[in-house]
């Protein structure tokens, strides 16, 4: 596919998945306009400016999710927009201000700008598995989760799952808006993302691996389903490059890794590691991880999944390299 001269925008570009999307877009020859909250914050931008092709084809733009119209400058003239910007917090003192408003208002702010710009042909929204699996009727160990399932906002509220609520409401509003405005919107729903980090600081999902290397079981779930950041970002780009792509795409680890599997890989790096799985885990809903996930749809984009073992190894290598372990 000849992408020469194609201009695309990535919002929240300093984030974990977004940084990889920028890296792969530059590798493929796209011209990228990346939005960040503060282009002068070197900690947030240095790793982007150091990417191959950045000097020639990457420009940074200041934009704020809650500031109406602040994305116009970046999006004007772009053929596609990857909207990844959204806060990732599992606990919040003020969920409305810290999570829900930036996620929902920010998404609508970006989509409204996309509608204004006649150049924009397709928008790819980064949602989450949190917008798929948080509901009262668990699938059971043999149930299959697919793109037809949606999290239930009232269930999220009852359980105080504010992050899931923010992603669910943002995706729902985005889809309604896209339908009303005949917009070509594609939604990506990644699970717990690990793999090498480009940014200099720890993000939420990779911090889970740091906890595991310390012998902790951060979600107290005895098993984890990981998906590689390189697969997730490539899926976003394939969703742009595949004309027939449509709707939602679940991109989650097809395989469940037990604590023993994880420990086996991590022992290479931490020889005396022992992850305690004898904790009292009775109140944890194991259903959260043991369901099956259908990744057939995302495979139609040409995505092949990186083995969990490789992802874990590469995560730890990357953390060591950045002195974060």
UniProtKB/TrEMBL annotation:
CDD domains linked to this entry: FR_SDR_e
GO molecular-function terms, A-Z: oxidoreductase activity
InterPro entries in UniProt: Epimerase_deHydtase (IPR001509), NAD(P)-bd_dom_sf (IPR036291), NAD(P)_dehydrat-like (IPR050425)
Keywords associated with the record: NADP, Oxidoreductase
Gene3D superfamilies xref list: NAD(P)-binding Rossmann-like Domain
Source taxon at top rank: Eukaryota
Domain NAD-dependent epimerase/dehydratase residue range list: 8-246
PANTHER family from the UniProt entry: NAD DEPENDENT EPIMERASE/DEHYDRATASE, NAD(P)-BINDING ROSSMANN-FOLD SUPERFAMILY PROTEIN
Family membership: Belongs to the NAD(P)-dependent epimerase/dehydratase family. Dihydroflavonol-4-reductase subfamily.
Protein name: (rape) hypothetical protein
